[in-house]
Design brief:
With 171 residues, the protein is mainly alpha-helical. It has 9 helices and 3 strands. Helix 7 packs antiparallel against helix 8. The longest helix is centred in the last third of the chain and has 19 residues. The two termini are 31 Å apart.
């Protein structure tokens, strides 16, 4: 039985969450871009926009490409996000974004700058000492950015074990 959500477009069996694709996504991305501007992902029952121009156009057209019903391919995650900055359309999205911009502006963060800079100063040497070599994104940028956001949110250290996975699923 065909999926009623499936648009008339090329399809692909690429599994974007396969371990091999996650380890090196660029060949899969190239395959999807070469397939067309819209590609049906058979494994996930969802359409993908693999090219920059189409993504940019979709992000600018919230009436046709709504985020209010969710932004992921996982119904459970969409339900968990509820009405949030990432899963909403204007004017609700605009109200959330205004609050975030006010809280995350350089002026608003000025008082947190020493703590943020101290974390950066500790992170790089710590990673280099532990491993000798490292993956700049996985070992440094990801934990650093998640740590900064967790600090800004006031998430206590003892409650952070599941935070990286939840943050990634939410974004």
């Amino acid at each position: 039985m065909s999926d009623p959500r499936r648009p008339a477009c090329p399809s692909s069996t690429v599994d974007l969450w396969d371990d091999a694709v996650l380890a090196d996504p660029f060949p899969a991305f190239a395959e999807l871009r070469s397939a067309g501007p819209v590609v049906w992902l058979e494994r996930h029952g969802a359409a993908a926009l693999p090219r920059f121009a189409e993504v940019q156009a979709a992000l600018a057209d919230w009436r046709r490409f709504s985020s209010a019903r969710g932004v992921g391919v996982d119904d459970q995650m969409n339900a968990m996000l509820g009405e949030s900055v990432i899963a909403s359309d204007p004017p609700v999205h605009d109200a959330y974004r205004k609050l975030l911009v006010e809280q995350l502006s350089p002026t608003a963060l000025a008082g947190d700058a020493p703590r943020i800079e101290a974390l950066a100063g500790r992170s790089a040497p710590d990673v280099a000492e532990r491993r000798g070599s490292f993956d700049a994104v996985a070992d440094l940028a990801r934990p650093y950015s998640l740590g900064v956001v967790a600090d800004l949110l006031g998430l206590p250290p003892q409650r952070r074990a599941h935070y990286p996975g939840l943050a990634e699923r939410g974004l």
